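Subject: Sanity check before I submit

Could someone independently write out the structure tokens for this chain? I want to compare against mine line by line before I put it in a report. The sequence has 490 residues.
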Amino acid sequence: MNQYPMIIQGGMGAAISGWRLAHAVSELGHLGVVSGTALDVILARRLQDGDKGGHIRRALDHFPFPEMAGRIWRKFHIPGGKQNDAPYVMLPLHAKDGPREVEELCVAGNFVEVFLAREGHRNPVGINYLEKIQLPHLPSIYGAMLAGVDYVLMGAGIPLRIPGVLERFVTHDPATYPLTVTDAQQGDDTTVTFAPRDFMERDLPPLRRPKFLAIIASNTLATTMVKKANGRVDGFIIENSSAGGHNAPPRGKLQLSEAGEPVYGERDNVDLDKLRSLGLPFWLAGGYGSPEKFAEALETGAAGIQVGTAFAFCAESGLREDYKHALLRKAVSGTARVFTDAIASSTGFPFKVAQLEGSLSERQVYLARPRICDLGYLREAYRTAEGAIDFRCSAEPETIYASKGGNPEDTRGRRCLCNALLANIGQPQARKGGRIEVGIVTSGDDLLNISRFLPPHGLTYSAADVITKLMEVCSSSVAVVSTALPHAAL
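---
Independent answer below. Compare away.
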């Protein structure tokens, strides 16, 4: 029996790939993946919304540190939920050292998401992180491992130190992670540390080490991961530029098309022959969400495919219903459009944006929003003139960014993805004057072909429908190895 999943569900956005979607995919014998982005604030906001269905309470009842769970519950849970026009409680921003309240929310939030995705079946579940969002890495990964996560996936950077973190957390030992700091000098302390035993309320047995899959877009990065990572790399997800979310920048000097999108060329394609020589399993992603492309991937020697867009718009995804149905209607009518925006994200990575009226994809909506940075996940760490570490974001007010040494030109066109992605899942912040944050929907280019999963005259389909469709052209031998795998097989 094949030890690897054939279909990996993409870990998209902030809770677009939530526990419900991952549970649905894993229960069917493939790899369901939860997004690990912003799970601290998502946990706090779900509690302020009243914990509909009691799912968080159920998960926290299994959390190994009940005192921590009690503190979180008492501070954030609002019976019946807050009023729609009432603001969510703002959390302290992540920093190099703490604050502890946010670290506890990271541990608990990641535990809750993975626990709920794994509940009621014995098949593997993964979690996806962006390497560029470095400050929450350590408490987040520890929380996911407490819940028994089977796979950790990471892209949007070079995650050389993640395998070693996984090894350290197996035995609850302290782990460190290097923080990328602009203008750092030799001798500066740029390391973040997390010591599980400072948070543990009782001794626990060793944890299982999850498999680690690096999300890459070049042979150079794959080779670097194999040679220089501080622990075992278990495989690669090769994500091309048609995938949703953040894309790797084109190699060489940035060139834009007439429409203003980055131009990718032959140099941006991964040489699969060279990749196969590394001897590790790989999955192909970005435009592989069809039976024909699935079969093509298997023919190249891939272990399978990662599919994002098809799952992002299914019934179990966390995307709010009005956005979901509006974009599905556009897809069916042939008017859907995805724009690869070279400047929308403060990370500097190209970011794919589905064009949707009333969202931040519209220039007038973007310009009408006051520039606010109060979540701060995509902030850049930099060294101050005094030698301290501070943070700035090119989506914050221009004058503030410039006062921190940032180039004012870098603020042009930057969207606040942090607030927008939370608005995408129905957790928009309410501002003074009655203003409510609006979303920005990311999608792969395959949005244009999403109707292949829809029933005639319908706008709703399930994760099971996606899997059934993808498996159509697979041989019976392929179908056998995709059956549900118990933990023991991994």
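---
OP: Matches mine. For the report I'm noting this point. The longest helix spans residues 100-118.
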